């Protein structure tokens, strides 16, 4: 019996040991599972942190502009406006939704081949999230398919050719610049009427031909007759032969579309068109070109922008800040650069910093935003910004060495809305 008790006791002890080991194993497994859970949580947190880190990477914007050559002044104006626009829209922080904003400017040299190469470099080497540009319609049209290929939003400023938001448009393209049809409506409103005979002069380029085509349609809609269309070499410096053909056509008005430093105003003055009964009309250009237009005091026309015309807080800020920074007032394309910057920042605020096209496109379609020219709205169908233009008269003004655009009336975004030409 004693041995039986001893064996019973040993058996009980053995069972207790096995049970204890089993419990210990369960506890260990449980502890390891818990530890595994904690490790998984750490990995998830690290992964989340990496995601947050990527989303907190800088937003990179690539800006294409003519920073040299015939359109250099336009490119510089756009660059200044864009930089000030970012300052304004971010309250000076240069960040949006927790992401810093970095900008890379590239000179297209007003050459479509160069513009294409620079755009590819910005997208593939610099890794920009958004493109902006450019000063020339030809440069811009060369880049449109690249934005589509890389699936990146491109904000067009200040190129105006209708085809950019027309035949050559794709869904990645938004334009803060006005287009040729908007200019045409404003230009026609200044001079066209029933039976008025009009001739046109423009560069032989996408900008010039699109502009004339749009103006002709708008003027005819108001009852005017187009008696002659003259297209000059875009790089010409002497327009005498072109203007002689216009004189022979004997119109009531000559409507001029031009961009660049090589303007036709000296020959128009020398050939005394106004004394021949031909009134000249155009979109009032930048201040440098206005200085060549002293003989055209009294001219009726339109303008995209002159710093004294808009009455709003954004323009007040721009004029003041531009004078502080550069010692002069903002010029024709400065507010366009600012508007492009504001549109991007406002869109990124709404997407909480998501700069992918999948987020930006639906956000920007139909989006309204405040600019130096008042409220702009990206039309859903073609992403063209609807905006205010100005019917003006050029007048002498004390203290100015150029004829000043004086407001006749504002042309509302609804009034200047161009036709939808992209088939949407």
From TrEMBL:
Residues 29-49 have a biased composition (Acidic residues). InterPro entries: BCAA_transport, Leu-bd, Peripla_BP_I. Residues 58-394 form the Leucine-binding protein domain. Keywords: Signal. The keyword Flavoprotein does not apply. Residues 27-57 are annotated as: Disordered. Residues 1-20 form the signal peptide. PROSITE patterns: PROKAR_LIPOPROTEIN (PS51257). SUPFAM superfamilies: Periplasmic binding protein-like I. Belongs to the leucine-binding protein family. This is ABC transporter permease.
